[in-house]
Write a structure and sequence with these properties.
Blueprint (H helix, E strand, L loop, with lengths): L4 E11 L2 H7 L6 E6 L6 H17 L7 H10 L4 H4 L7 E11 L5 H4 L4 E2 L11 H10 L4 H7 L4 H15 L1
Antiparallel strand pairs: 1-3, 1-4, 2-3
Helix pairs in contact: 2-3, 2-8
């Protein structure tokens, strides 16, 4: 198996039909994983999950049949594809991270029509109660756990869940 590299892009995309969109981004030379930015607390956690997924892929210790889904499973820290898909692409306009993998991942504008590359703030710089609730609910982080560790450790709690998922899968 050749080397697998990745690039992560931040930006916005509008999707009218999810199935059509997913079909349109299938390529032979790379895979694209779209992640809803509302569930990503920081770029370090995203990179950590991507690296764990690529390592699992190389070692043949995967749950899914595609690297992009394996990445989504790692980010979601779950074996359940239906749950991991909650962090993926949805209909409408979305703020997303696009993870492009391959031996030589192409530039995003070459492979993802309609993607508007734009920097945006990480969770700690773009905090909202609604976003916090989504993250806490998805990762099953209780009020007591958050109270004990403090909100400033939220990214570490999620990274721990990703690491444990990788070990236990």
């Amino acid at each position: 198996m050749g080397s697998i590299n990745y690039r992560i892009y931040r930006g916005f995309i509008e999707v009218k039909d999810v199935e059509e969109f997913l079909e349109s981004i299938k390529r032979e030379d790379c895979e694209i994983c779209i992640v809803d930015a509302d569930f990503v607390t920081d770029i370090d956690n995203l990179e950590f999950a991507v690296q764990k997924a690529i390592k699992s892929w190389r070692e043949g210790k995967t749950i899914s049949k595609s690297l992009s889904m394996e990445i989504l499973l790692h980010i979601a820290a779950t074996r359940q594809i239906k749950d991991a898909l909650k962090l993926g692409i949805k209909r409408g306009k979305m703020r997303v991270y696009a993870v492009v993998t391959g031996s030589e991942p192409p530039e995003i504008n070459e492979i993802l029509p309609g993607f508007v590359q734009q920097e945006f703030k990480d969770f700690e710089d773009d905090f909202s109660e609604e976003r916090l609730k989504k993250i806490l609910d998805f990762y099953d982080i209780g009020e007591e756990e958050l109270r004990i560790t403090g909100i400033e450790k939220l990214s570490l709690i999620i990274r721990e869940r990703i690491a444990l998922f990788d070990i236990e899968k």
